[in-house]
Every structure is written in C-alpha cells, then in structure tokens.
Input
Amino acid sequence: MMAAVSLKHPGFHEEREWRLIHSPAQFPSPYVPSATEIIGGIPQVVHKVRFENQPTVDINGIELPQLLDRVIIGPSQYAGTIGQSLVRELGEIGVENAVGKVIVSGIPLRS
Output
C-alpha cells in the first residue's frame, strides 16, 4: 500500500510535495471526521481533514496559510481556469501572495 500511494513518475521529480495519507480501516483518527455526501449523484463516504491548529491536543502549524508553500496544477486542459479559482480561494482563507504560490506544471497533458 505504501508503494502504491508514495511512488511517483520520474517526470514529477522536481515536485517535492508532502502527501497526506488517511487509511481509516488501518489507522482511524478522531481528528479526521467522515460523513456520507452525494457527489455527482453518488452517495460516498467523505473524510475531511481539518487544517486547524488544535493546541489542546498538541496539533500545531497545520493551518493552510502556515503550511502551504505552493500549489502545482497539471497536467490539465484547464490549468488557467483552475489556477485563477485556486488563487481566489487561497486569498479568501488568508494565504499571502496566493498568485505567487499557484504554478502550472510543465508536464504535458496526455490525451
């Protein structure tokens, strides 16, 4: 399982990202609540990670304005539109210099 979620294509080596992996069957957490939501007409269990500091349980430094270095978009046919939307949303939650944090990947879109 770790290899399946942790390995990436060599073309993405410059993207030094962190990956958040939640495996509720193996490692349940009271800090990742779940609910059934209807998405595209299909009921699904959705797990929501709350990027909120919780000092009383020693969870600190995880609010997005503190945590986020950059967002890489792509490959996508609509990278510009996605980028504009992300810049707006990031600005609304208090991320400084959101325009400078959202970039488009140089990996070409495969059809």
Remarks:
- The CA atoms of residues 89 and 98 lie 9 Å apart.
- The chain has four helices and four strands.
- The chain has one domain: 27-104.
